[in-house]
Amino acid sequence: MSAAMDVLTERLHGRMPRQAIVLGSGLGSLVETIADPVRISYADLPGFPESGVSGHAGEVVAGHMGSTPVIMLSGRVHYYEHGKADAMRVPLEALQGIGVTHLILTNAAGSLRQDMPPGSVMRITDHINFSGSNPLFGEPSDRRFVGMTNAYDADLAARMTAAAKTTGTPMQEGVYMWFSGPSFETPAEIRMARMMGADAVGMSTVPEVILARFFGMKVAAASVITNFGAGMTGGELSHQETKDMAPVGGKRLAAILTAMLSAPDIAHG
């Protein structure tokens, strides 16, 4: 981690963003909202994993959204790629090491609600870890017992909601359920998820929330809805559908995040 942190510090030339954003599948275009960007390939950062999933660029982009210094991770590595729930540990620890205190996570997800169609944005209020895995497996210290009652920071949630209202952008709220992937869920699993209280399903984000809380960061998260869950429409699901639909909701999410990060006090936490 220290090697990656050293490279980031050197390449950022004195920039000290406290706000970070992780971009999910098909949401890489959000980096275009960054003003005066500095781009660093994951390949140049020791220990940063390179994603093998199309739609994930694999670069760090630092600059400003509105008046706020931010740093984006354009692309993530998923548990299903290597069977490692802690695949994003080095990037998040490096962010924490350079002074990031607030983390906004984004993803593409499947909706379990008819009133939340593809193209919608959902602020994640809580999650269900259905994968059976955890990024803190093997952590030797008692720090591994991370409390998750307030996994999603109330102040950041209020800021995101206010930004949606300010921009007139519809935003739903709901619970996200993490499935391991990479295969999509079955209709039976979708019915189960709905009975368990989930509003959307996906294959990421939850490990990063756990890691971020482990590192003491405050977290907010949002899903861009790209499809209905299996069995809800009769059609088959595909990753291409995810990539095609993510930019639709991505534009709405970009408007929300830009307004959220343009608030005069956000840069000071």
Q: Within the CATH hierarchy, at the fold level, what is the topology?
A: Rossmann fold
Calculate the mean pLDDT score and round it: 91
> How many H/I helices?
7
Taken as a percent bin, the fraction of beta residues is 15-25%
Which H/E pattern describes the elements?
HEEEEHHEEHEHEHEH
Q: What coarse outline follows from CA principal-axis ratios?
A: globular
CATH superfamily: Nucleoside phosphorylase domain
Low-confidence stretches: none
C-alpha end-to-end distance: 24 Å
- Tell me the CATH architecture: 3-Layer(aba) Sandwich
Q: How many domain units?
A: 1
Query: What is the CATH top level name?
Result: Alpha Beta
Strand ordering within the main sheet: 5-8-7-6-9
- Extended strand count: 9
> What portion of residues is helical?
25-40%
Query: Structural class given helices, strands, pairing?
Result: alpha/beta
Radius of gyration: 17 Å
Major beta-sheet overview = 5 strands, mixed, barrel
